[in-house]
Amino acid sequence: MKNLRRAGYFLKGAVLNLTRHPLYSSVGILTLCVSLILVGFLGLFMWKADQVIEEMSGGLKLTVYLEAEITPGAVEELTRVILDSWPEVDDVTFHTHEEDRARNRNLLPRELLEELDPSLIPAQPFLEVQLAISRVTEARIDKMIEWFRSLAQVQGVDEVLFGADKISVAYSLIQGARNLGVFIAAVIVLAALFFVVTTTRLIVEGRRKEIQVLLLVGATKNFVRIPHYIEGVLQGLMAGALAFIVVWLLQHQLLSNLRAEALLQVPVNLLPTGMGVWFILGGGVLGLLGSALGIARYLRLSQ
Amino acid sequence: MVAMITFADVTKRYPGGIIALDGVSVDIQEGEFVFVTGPSGAGKTTLIRLLLAQEKPSSGQVLVARRNVRALRESSIPFLRRNIGVVFQDFRLIDSRTVFENIAVTLEVLGLPQKTIRTRVTHIMDLLGLGHLMKSYPPMLSGGEQQRVAIARAVVNDPPLIVADEPTGNLDPALSVEVMDLLKEANGRGATVIVATHSRELMERYRTRCIYLERGQKVDERMTGGDAE
Predict the structure, then answer these.
(1) Where does residue A4 rank: exposed (0-12), middle (13-18), buried (19+ CB within 10 A)?
(2) Strand partners, A254
(3) Distance CA A54, CA A59 (A)
(4) Do B110 and A303 touch (CB under 8 A)?
(5) Same domain, residue pair B62 and B79
(6) Is B69 contained in some domain?
(7) pLDDT for A271-290, tens place per residue?
(8) What is the mean pLDDT of residues B64-90?
């Protein structure tokens, strides 16, 4: 009963503190909100970066041309070996020589096609190997290129066509973006935490007298600490909701502008509603962390 | 008689070699009202900080309500302080809380039910003539009213010990007497009261024991008041 009463007191104390110190509360919420917007944009960037670069690199494909007489069993076996050997392979699709002819027909000028006997258009069955470049690792890239080159020696395979350079460039791009992303993420997360902790320390400093009085009348450090933590979490939750609204409005505005300039023709939603939950939860965690680190030193030095 | 406070050969040395208390020995009995006086720097505030376990003695023993301050674990300090009502010269009220909330904080720390808190705070406010200020904030009050609120906060849980550090330092003579009378009343209800003060007039007004400190040492101890010898 006493614990329940105490929990109620802590919750009430935290809510009252938010209203008793509107300036401190606003500064706290704003600080958390700005930090979350920075971290949120970064998260979005990192989340989408692989996908965007992969799309920009045109979806890397290899073409394994097969001999005309190859049996369906051999095609199936080859497909299985490729898929089993390389987790970096996203998909392998078999195309018949008629499909290849149709594809090549589309590449020829219309005037030429009118004069040309369709049976003269070159055609050959082939396997289209789709790579997921985001899954490629540095340790395996050279081995993978070499393996696909050597595939030309396998019975039933005529030729393997792929741009090894293109794969390497795309891989370097992805790797660079990843490294840069991790570096920027570390800097931004640390900066956000520093920003939040410094602000919390200033807020604690402003409430120094209140904390001293509480300790003098016999409050335990937990009695001082817990409402402060709850207050941090509440501020974080509010800041998370606010940050999500701001980021959503900004991306909405950005996409509207891109559409207006005809730079974007496909429907894109960078920020699904589910992300809101992550923003709010992230805010709560950041708020808790900031308040915990902010008050820890002060309480350690106080008697 | 049982000692509420015992200082046994207490020395408090601060970094830099400053000696705030030097071999002080004092016994204060339960229910006593004692003045501690002396010039600035005599060690009065250090003595109070030792009583509140804000400091630990460098040597010697400090016993407060049968607890040894020197041996007290950090986690036990709040429980010692719940037995001590404190009053300061600068009142130390929380400006963002109402008068009611400032007084209630002493009972909230004890985890009492809201109903009990309301009853006891209202009672002490009426007793100290603060009933009409319940929803006021400290910055709206006069110095005398703020000190009465501080005294209400110190006595609301009926602590066995009340410690006041220059409680009349910021008040005019009439208000000073009023504040001292409130502390005397608390003493009359059974609390041991220790008042650190500079004011010779106040000490002469009450017949009580007075401990004189100078440069960290106890230099005298005698009864004060009109008919004191």
Answers:
(1) exposed
(2) none
(3) 6
(4) no
(5) yes
(6) yes
(7) 677 788 888 998 999 889 88
(8) 92
Minimum distance, in Å, between the CA of residue A203 and any CA atom of chain B: 14
> Among B128, B158, B188, which residue terminates a domain?
B158
pLDDT at B228 over 80: no
Please report the pLDDT score of residue B83 as a whole number.
94
Query: Which tokens is A230 given?
Result: 């709850």
Q: Which chain A residues contact residue B81 at CB under 8 A?
A: 215-218
- Return the CATH number at B71: 3.40.50.300
Q: Say if the Cβ atoms of B81 and A9 lie within 8 Å.
A: no
What is the spatial distance between Cα A220 and Cα B77, in angstroms, rounded to a whole number? Answer: 8
What's the mean pLDDT when you consider all of chain A?
81
The average pLDDT across B83-92 equals 92
The interface residues of chain B toward chain A in range 133-172, judged by CB-CB distance below 8 A, are 153
Across the interface, of A20, A209, A217, the residue whose CB is closest to B106 is A217
CATH, domain A58-163, list 3.40.50.300, 3.30.420.10, 3.10.50.40, 3.30.70.3040 = 3.30.70.3040
Mean pLDDT for A125-145 is 80
Number of domains composing chain B: 2
Q: Strand B3-14 vs strand B84-88: parallel, antiparallel, or unpaired? A: unpaired
Q: Which two tokens stand for residue B99?
A: 């008068």
Residue A46 phi, psi dihedral angles, 5° rounding: -70, -35
Residues B174 and B144 both lie in one domain: no
Which chain A residues contact residue B92 at CB under 8 A?
A: 209, 212-213, 216
Q: A25, A18 in Cβ contact below 8 A?
A: yes
Most confident of A5-9, B96-100, B178-182, B220-224: B96-100
**Whether residues B70 and B7 fall in one domain:** yes
Residue whose C-alpha is closest to residue B196's, from B39, B64, B65: B39
Within chain A, all domains assigned CATH 3.30.70.3040 are found at 58-163
In a domain, B20, yes or no: no
pLDDT in tens, B100-129: 999 999 999 998 999 999 999 999 999 888
| CB-CB contact of A45 with A138 (8 Å) | no
B116 and B75 housed in the same domain: no
Which pLDDT score, from 0 to 100, does residue B187 have? 93
B110 and A220 within 8 Å at the Cβ level: the answer is no
Domain boundary among B131, B158, B185: B158
A58: left (phi over 0), alpha (psi -120 to 50) or beta: left
Contact B111 A220 (CB under 8 A): no
Same-domain status, B76 and B99: no
| Residues B171 and B75 grouped into a single domain | yes
Q: Which residue has the higher pLDDT, A147 or A196?
A: A147
Distance CA(B156)–CA(B88), nearest Å, equals 16
Min Cα distance B76 → chain A (Å) is: 9
